[in-house]
Amino acid sequence: PDGGAAQLLIDARIGGFDIASQRTLVARLHATFVDAQAPPGLELHLAGPVATNVANQASSNRASNATSSLSFVLVIALLLLIFRSLLAPIVTLIPPAISLVVSTRLIGLLGAHGLKISEITSLLLIVLLIGAGTDYGLFLVFRVREAMRSGMEPDDAVVPALARVGESITASAGTVMFALLSLLLASFGIYHDLGIPLAIGVAVMLAAGLTLLPALLT
């Protein structure tokens, strides 16, 4: 009645990097609010580092989903204008999409084992992999088209195209990875913790660009 507040401290045996267990804990604590049946005028809230971490993770996931959806729509529209073909944009975007899923899981696994990951990693990873993957795809698809115009069959056209483009995209990806790893020298944590996760994502994208994309093109 006097507008004051009471704070209850909860001890929980939970890992600082175990977001799944943290989500379960927060959900169960929220469930107790309903069971408590607080009288009118009394509000129950959950705060603290665990609750904040879970809320930030949920917000980041929503932002990542929106970013990835809009990015894919925009890139598909641009690729349709560039290729003037329906199949080429889809084939070009499959490797970045798969690389995004694989690298996200891999980075999450490393994070569960202690790798520090910046909270903006997921957003930057989406833009970075879609951009790099589309770039690598454009290089390879145009080279394949050139070989086909010279009279080669699609299966045969991929071989010289990959030989010509492979070195270029490998050098490009290597440059990006070294640049990202230079973030490890940053003193500000939000930048320092971006280097390794983003470099892993580019490495996965490069592997897909040299293997999966040529296979899809054949």
Description:
By secondary structure, this protein is mainly α. Helices cover 75% and strands 0% of the residues. The chain has helices spanning 19-36, 49-83, 87-112, 121-149, 154-181, 189-192, 195-217. Helix 3 runs antiparallel to helix 4 (121-149), helix 3 packs antiparallel against helix 7 (195-217) and helix 4 runs antiparallel to helix 5. The longest helix is centred in the first third of the chain and has 35 residues, at 49-83. The radius of gyration is 23 Å and the shape is elongated.
User: Separation of termini?
Assistant: 73 Å
Secondary-structure element sequence?
HHHHHHH
Write down the overall geometry: elongated
* Main structural class: mainly alpha
Beta strand count: 0
Brief digest:
With about 220 residues, the protein is an all-alpha fold.
